[in-house]
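Could someone model C2E with this protein?
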Amino acid sequence: EMNQRVVERLRLESELRLALQLDQLELHYQPQVEIGSGRITGFEALLRWNHPELGMVSPVDFIPLAEETRLILPIGAWVLKEACRQNRHWQDQGLPPMVVAVNLSALQFQENDLVAMVSAALMTSGLAPRWLELEITESVIMQEPERMVGILEELKCLGVRLSIDDFGTGYSSLSYLKRFPIDKIKIDRSFIRDVVSSQGDAAIVRMVIAMAGELERKVIAEGVETNEQLDFLRLHQCHEFQGFLCSRPVPARRVPELLAAGAEAI
Ligand code: C2E
Ligand code: MG
Ligand code: MG
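Reply:
Sure, complex below.
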């Protein structure tokens, strides 16, 4: 059985190696909605692997492999370029300008050329930096916080926005949290799931919203699926939400219709 697993892994690895060249990777986009106005303010770009036999493979299933093999470096560079290109294209088509958020992996911060790469993706696409957001997970940010402050400041100097992803699942040092030049905190889905029924989760979510307010950061809730969850977030003045309640991640071609329909539907 172990042999079988090793063979499968090797196969997936060699296929992933070719996925970029064969154009099998694509980005799907999930709206982020301002709770007060119901307006879509941006989208998160989420990677999908369109595998010829396996169908759409979720990033949960191949990003760990991409990280182990360092393939995440060329893949991550492609994601950045593609998200910037697509966002600029939407603007050129006359859609209202919006922020597109891109996820970064830990390995991308270990390379020295991250800032240059982001800058190149902006230049090549002609996208103004304010329309690009970079998401960094709390656990990655807290691995080497001192070094991170420096890199994040350099990124911030480019004019892009920064957010902390999966907030609440890592071990944030509050003193660093204040020093990181981040614009937005994303409350992890695991706290939103039972926010209506669990007093503990409700307390954590209220606390993160209050803390973000004190630190003058924006706050967004991930994984909102029900109207009750949204009511809770509205009551406690969370700025934005993202989740199936508004929409699942969709292919780029469906973004214009989502924008046209607006979030008024919910
Ligand atoms: P994430 O950045 O926290 O992204 C949010 C995940 O939650 C997405 O899963 C999204 O589809 C899912 N989600 C959104 N709303 C709901 C909801 O209401 N209910 C539920 N149950 N799920 C919801 P996805 O697309 O499978 O991505 C998983 C993770 O893979 C992402 O978590 C991110 O860490 C990583 N990832 C995705 N794309 C990239 C990428 O381009 N680069 C890197 N480095 N990581 C990526
Ligand atoms: Mg994310
Ligand atoms: Mg997240």
